[in-house]
Write a structure and sequence with these properties.
Layout: E1 16-23, E2 27-32, E3 37-41, E4 53-57, E5 60-63, E6 69-73, E7 79-84, E8 88-93, H1 103-113, E9 117-122, H2 130-137, H3 140-144, E10 146-149, H4 158-168, E11 170-174, H5 181-188, E12 213-216, E13 222-225, H6 239-245, H7 249-255, H8 272-279, H9 284-303
Parallel strand pairs: 8-9, 8-11, 9-10, 11-13
Antiparallel strand pairs: 1-2, 1-4, 2-3, 4-5, 6-7, 12-13
The structure holds guanosine-5'-diphosphate (GDP), magnesium ion and zinc ion.
Length: about 300
């Protein structure tokens, strides 16, 4: 049989391969397989993020292909990449400071859209108010994502989280400032020594963490700590996909399909999502937040 030779037009990439483990805006920290690290200057808009595999060619960084990216739209509608090559997105919430309504749902959609498994980490379980938070999360949320109750201060629940991270691979923490992301990281990996901040008089967290950092845990797996943000608006999600990924909606549609296949679940007759709201199986608040995100995505689509 004749041998077919496949010619690649691109010259083979050569250089030292490493992983971006910190991003400081104008420079990144690259870690190599032998554990050594090097700080490399980058342009502000280089697009490199923590989790990227890169080749160092001379003084330049060449990014290798990514298996996924976690993106969000900032308040100015600009697309931002949070991290790359993730296995799990851990959404960290706490009784104080409160997480804005819709953050969880939108973070779940953003993770699923990127092919990343979402999970929920309820921190500060040492505070009595955690019961109120659990009640607010309701029963339907834990049904769509794994949930861990932890306390960075007392260490409660950290063993389960550690095991989960070891079996998952690379996990990123997102959540509002003050939820305790850096504190959990420090509790999981004391050598990380990340700076943590208090809460101000309005119960808001201070923006103590200004760049992302990836740490490798001795117990296995890697964690990316990120700066806090108050929204995780999904990017490039079609209206149909939104209903598919939005927590709580899919199970309703699977059990009782709507009359119209392309139902937007707004006001179409025979909509099983609207019926679920009337019956109390889907909370009015979660439904309203779905409509809000749907409006936002439609407005973006119509701009293109
Ligand atoms: N009570 C309590 N406070 C915590 C816990 N974890 C973090 N904190 C406090 O929450 C504040 C914000 O923590 P930090 O880790 O900087 O939050 P981040 O902005 O999400 O990284 C700090 O004052 C921490 O001491 C916890 O498990 N219980
Ligand atoms: Mg932090
Ligand atoms: Zn419907």
């Amino acid at each position: 049989m004749a041998r077919i030779k496949i010619k690649s037009k691109q010259a083979p990439l050569s250089g030292k391969e490493g992983l971006i483990v910190s991003h400081f805006g104008v420079a990144v920290l690259v870690r190599f397989a032998d554990g050594s690290e090097e700080r490399v200057k980058v342009k502000r808009n280089s697009g490199h993020v923590v989790g990227d595999l890169v080749l160092i060619v001379g003084e330049r960084l060449q990014r290798l292909s990514r298996r996924n990216v976690l993106r969000r739209r900032d308040p100015f509608a600009k697309e931002r990449i949070i991290a790359a090559n993730l296995d799990v997105l851990a959404i960290v919430v706490a009784p104080r400071p409160q997480t804005p309504a819709g953050f969880l749902e939108r973070a779940v959609v953003a993770a699923r859209a990127a092919g990343i498994e979402p999970c929920l980490v309820v921190n500060k379980s040492d505070l009595a108010a955690v019961e109120v938070l659990r009640h607010q999360l309701g029963d339907d949320f834990p049904a769509v994502a794994r949930m861990f109750a932890v306390s960075a201060h007392t260490g409660a629940g950290l063993d389960q989280l550690r095991k989960f991270i070891a079996s998952s691979g690379r996990i990123a923490f997102v959540g509002v400032s003050g939820a305790g992301k850096s504190s959990i990281m420090n509790a999981l990996h004391p050598q990380a020594k990340l700076e943590t901040g208090g809460l101000n008089d309005a119960d808001h967290g201070c923006h103590t963490t200004s760049f992302s950092t990836l740490v490798t845990l001795a117990s296995g797996g890697e964690v990316v700590d990120t700066p806090g943000f108050r929204d995780l608006a999904p990017v490039d999600v079609s209206c149909e996909d939104l209903a598919h990924w939005y927590p709580g909606l899919m199970s309703i549609i699977e059990q009782h399909p709507c009359r119209f296949r392309n139902c937007s679940h707004r006001q179409e007759p025979g909509c099983s999502v609207k019926k679920a709201v009337t019956d109390g199986r889907l909370s009015q608040q979660r439904y309203d937040l779905y409509l809000h995100t749907l409006d936002e995505l439609e407005a973006l689509e119509s701009r293109c």
